[in-house]
Automatic annotation (TrEMBL):
InterPro entries hit by this protein: FAD-oxidoreductase/Apoptosis, FAD/NAD-bd_sf, FAD/NAD-binding_dom, FAD/NAD-linked_Rdtase_dimer_sf, Reductase_C, Ring-hydroxylating_dioxygenase
Domain FAD/NAD(P)-binding: 6-301
Cofactor(s) needed by this chain: FAD
One Pfam family named in its UniProt record: Pyr_redox_2
Domain Reductase C-terminal stretches: 320-407
UniProt keywords, alphabetically: FAD, Flavoprotein, Oxidoreductase
Protein name as annotated: FAD-dependent oxidoreductase
Amino acid sequence: MSNVNNIVIVGAGQAGASAILELRGNKYEGKITLIGDESHLPYERPPLSKDVILKPEDTKIEILSEQKLADLGVETIRGNGVMKINAEAKTVELLNGDVVAYDKLLLATGGAARRLPNFDALGKHVYTLRNLEDSQALVPVLQAGRRIILIGGGVIGLELASSARYKDCQVTVIEMGPMVMGRCSPQILSEFLLEQHRQNQVDVRLETKIADCRLDGEEVVVTLEGGEELRADAVVYGIGIVPNAQLALDAGLDVDVAIKVNEHCQTSNADIYAAGDVATQLRDCGNHRRVETWENANLQAGIFARHVMGVEHPKANPAWFWTDQLNINFQFVGDMAAAEWHIRGEMDAAKGADNSFVMYGVTDGQIVGGITVNAAKEMRHLKKMISKNTAFDVEKHLDIAQDLRKIA
């Protein structure tokens, strides 16, 4: 689009950084301004619950260095977020009062940790994990022998449980629901995950509600609904995020819990786009849905960049994400709510990190989902099967003598 000479990206995270790379990779020559409220340059978030805690000196998470941003011709504003969008004037006002004009605006503002005010009120010994400072603050907390309570049995909670056990902490996970990773994992894999954590001395409490919390000297006391008291040196909670959509709401854009965007990542204002955790996108099912994955942030950033430039973007791959827990790599693709699941290989909870198998999610005879456990090289074949609407064949797909590459 020849009239797009000035693009402003609000949010210096995964989606914002990916948008820059996509724009320049597709030969966009106009001005790009990247605005971030953090003082850091764009960095990867998946390592925050793992390597940043376990190997802080050796872990590099920066996506775009200062030199790389300069080479790409990006004007970078750090530690000075956006206070207001004036959609009519096509400007954003920064916290320090500066005004920046745009032709096209991308909101990649991510989300903030959903709060537990009763725990926040305790002040000390209570933590969340959303940004680099949060992760760095946990490094001295997760030390051998320390008693750690993790509230929330989702991906972040279980990754932190794994990291804490690696550092020889005593770990308790409290989950209100009946499953760990219940939002993004089929029951059969959730049960396998649960067994892995319990075998590694993680005390996982399912269907457990918290009645109260208080400080007793240097201990946090968590009272469960049944009256049991758990004492800890620290509590870390991760119960989901709240999309940072207030800017969009104040600007009059269409917002539900997040910023509603179409298949091009455009908001209700054609010159304003949104991508990543802050965006809820219209899906094939006809509903708007938000996807909190590293891949989705990259995907939507690419859609935005190509649409702005009038370049056709390829059909999206099936949704994919991964998690590393207890020295086991789990990768998920496609529909985790498939009607039935079939295992290729042997799922043996007793084998722990020595497990290696593949799972097919099947609905109406078609492969619609897939999971690899310590079998990452097979993931590309599962993605291909799902994209091709492959019919599931028990004898063929479960035969470990068959090369998945040849039958995908």
